[in-house]
Amino acid sequence: MTDQNFSYDVAVDLGQLIRIQVKSTREARIPVGRQLGQVPLYKFQMTRPRGQRLYAKGTFELYALVALDIHQIAYMPPSWHKTLVFIGVPGSRPGGKHFEDFPFAKAIAELGLS
Prior knowledge:
The protein has about 110 residues and is mainly β. The chain has one domain. Helix content is about 5%, strand content about 30%. The protein has one helix spanning about 105-110; strands spanning about 10-15, 15-25, 40-45, 60-65, 70-75, 85-90. It has a four-stranded mixed beta sheet. It has a two-stranded antiparallel ribbon with strand order 3-6. The radius of gyration is 14 Å and the shape is globular.
């Protein structure tokens, strides 16, 4: 864990320091006003807390998107997202994004560190 003044939350040493920005949500919800059907989704706001500012490029290598109620994490480089990310509930209908699609190893490989 890092100090509140850093631009990332966790660092992992893989022979090279990997800085990780953690985003979490308590539970899946049915998105309001979306054409995604009635399936609950986990919603992650990819901007800085309490604001709409994006993080500066190069301030961390990965996001860790944490669903607190089901203890699942999706890892992805900042280049894979927009300002919002929706991830489906495990076991939900096919299609869309799911936590198992974003393992740590895949994200590290994308960084060229596998």
